[in-house]
Design goal:
By secondary structure, the chain is α/β, with parallel strands linked by helices. It contains ten helices and seven strands.
């Protein structure tokens, strides 16, 4: 038994496709409202869907949704998204830091412009959205901050692979763990959630290996189901953790993950090490 999402309001960065949309759609089935800030107002041939198709999918799942077209790097856009949630639904219960930029080139090949983009969207965007939601999270009795960022794996393999991207994602994690401590007395949960394996998203298809990589990736629904399991817990019961989707589902009693695809041996995601033998 967990707490209900019925009538709760989620504010998310991104959300027009992929993992973000899967989370919002699953939450809609549980009765939640959604406000999401995303940029794709018109179709992009490289990317599936728009904010409008996302709203339609969320509402078809039984929820209420509002898309705010904007950029998580822009303070006015973020403020507009949070104000929309307050005006339309009366507050904010859950803040999901989903928007993220990806570039896995090494230090010598990564242009400074791309480095700055990742820091601005990933770490700074996470800080900005959470800070803007904070006054309303403090008023909620079911307040959650969920950041889609990895465990702090300091193995040289990961530290040396793509430092520009790594520091932007680890920044998201450090912020979230900091908030867990900062707001513990106020009952605001702050956790990170990361996939055990690659997830079949546009980033995987377009940047990380095409259809071959997609075939070895699980569906976004595994992250959605794990996120809902996190949201269903009272905030004081789980906070300050870097969670892996498969572990969250195992804890909830879901042992067979075959339904999420990826084949017998799905590709592990960044920052996730193979299990130790024995």
């Amino acid at each position: 038994m967990g707490t209900s999402l019925k009538g709760r309001t989620i504010v998310m960065s991104g959300g027009s496709r992929g993992i973000g949309l899967a989370i919002l759609t699953a939450a809609a089935r549980a009765g939640a409202n959604a406000v999401f800030l995303a940029k794709t107002d018109t179709p992009d041939p490289r990317l599936p869907g728009t904010v409008h198709t996302a709203v339609a999918a969320i509402e078809a799942a039984g929820g209420s949704a509002v898309a705010v077209v904007g950029d998580v790097r822009e303070e006015a856009d973020v403020e507009r998204a949070v104000a929309t949630a307050v005006d339309r639904f009366g507050g904010v219960d859950i803040c999901v830091n989903n928007a993220s930029a990806l570039d896995v080139r090494g230090t010598g090949e990564l242009p400074l412009k791309r480095f700055d983009l990742m820091q601005s969207i990933n770490s700074r965007g996470t800080f900005l959205l959470t800070r803007t939601c904070l006054p309303y999270l403090k008023r909620s009795d079911q307040a959650h901050i969920l950041t889609l960022s990895p465990p702090l794996n300091l193995a040289p393999r990961w530290l040396g692979a793509h430092p520009g991207y790594t520091v932007s994602k680890y920044g998201m994690t450090l912020l979230t763990l900091g908030w867990a401590s900062e707001f513990a007395e106020e009952g605001i949960a702050a956790n990170c959630l990361w996939p055990q394996t690659m997830i079949a998203t546009a980033a995987v298809s377009n940047v990380l290996g095409g259809e071959n990589a997609v075939s070895r990736s699980r569906s976004p629904e595994i992250m959605a189901d794990a996120a809902l399991a996190v949201f269903s817990r009272p905030p004081r019961e789980r906070t300050g953790e870097t969670l892996i989707d498969a572990d969250v589902l195992a804890e909830a009693g879901v042992k067979d993950l075959a339904g999420y695809g990826g084949g017998e041996h799905p590709e592990l995601d960044f920052f996730v090490d193979p299990p130790q033998a024995g």
